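Hey, sorry to bother you again with one of my protein questions. There's a protein on my desk that I can't quite get my head around. No rush at all, and the record is pasted right below.
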Amino acid sequence: MSNIISDVKDISTFSKQVSFKIPREALDAEMDRAAKKLRPKVTIPGFRKGKAPVSLIKKRFNERLLNDALDTLFPQYFFAAKKEAGIDSIGNPQVTDMKEVDEGLELTVEIEHIAPNEAIKDFKVEFPPFSIEVTEQEIDDYIEKMALEYAEWEETNETITNNMRVEFVVLEEGEEGKPFKIVVGDKSVDEEFNLTLVGKKIGDIFEWKEGKKVAIKKVEKVKRFPSEEEVAAKLKLSVDQLRSRVKENLEHHKRRMRVQQRYNIVMKELIDRFNFEIPPKFLELLYKRRASEKIRYIESRGVQLTEEELDKLLEKELEAAKMEALRIVILETVAKTFGLEADKKSLSKIKVKMKGKEIPALALPEHDPTLEDIKLSVRQRKALVKLLDLPEEEIELLD
């Protein structure tokens, strides 16, 4: 499949118009296949069902058969045209013109793409020191926190302090919601909520965000902490095994924090120093995808949104789509600038689920959209390896 492009025009910095041809032989062959597939399903006056000549079916259902043929041929020839033009597009192509010519069918599509930026080659950033070494004290502190899960508790009327366990409910229109139980000071709990609880007592009611009221139903303090040996026994581990596992978990957490810190620094610096434009049709695609998925999820739970709630949701999803699009644009620009490609070595490590089975990514047809998405993901990962100066396995820890 070569020499199929008839024209390429630049429309903007991130948009091109590409005209290419689907050869007559390929088009006719695919329409024949579509006609033979349709033949058993149609009845044409003068013929028994499924017995009409293929030539008559092609004449009667020409437009339908052409669309069926394009469903098969367009991805293949569009991919070949991009490859011939040396373009990696993002988002979906928009067909702006289609006409029959002697050689076959000529299609004109508008595609968006990301161009390299040579100035990025001089981009450098200094990262602050970040040790991933785990100290014995950190291991002790973590095990002490684990011990809270196996501690003996007793109710108390004392004012709330850190490491007390609090049961509370949210009051809605005077009625109590389901009870929640937290340990005050736990980092998984909203910091502001932790601070608000400190100093309160059982029976207290206070206002929280969005006018909600919170009622404290029970307060408990630790009666007895289990020893390190008891915590290990609860987990069916030796003390050495427990400490080793805790060390691994803390190292993993620190690596995750380090890669997130570097990512935040790099992205902020790149946005501040360079002007990245988001292709509008690509943004629209991401926004529609995000919004429809969110609405489907909400409806699947039987929730009916008011018009105001829907507007807020769509506004939130638009902002999220903008952030997602900007991230993709930045990383794709970096990949293009440094010639980072999704080579066979990278793709050979990836498997995808198709019809309930796992298959190698390299087994997918070249023009398959799933493979295109995988290649984009690989290029972005390579861009992050270069930008963050970290091994690929740590890049996988990014949220």
About this structure: The chain is about 50% helix and 20% strand.
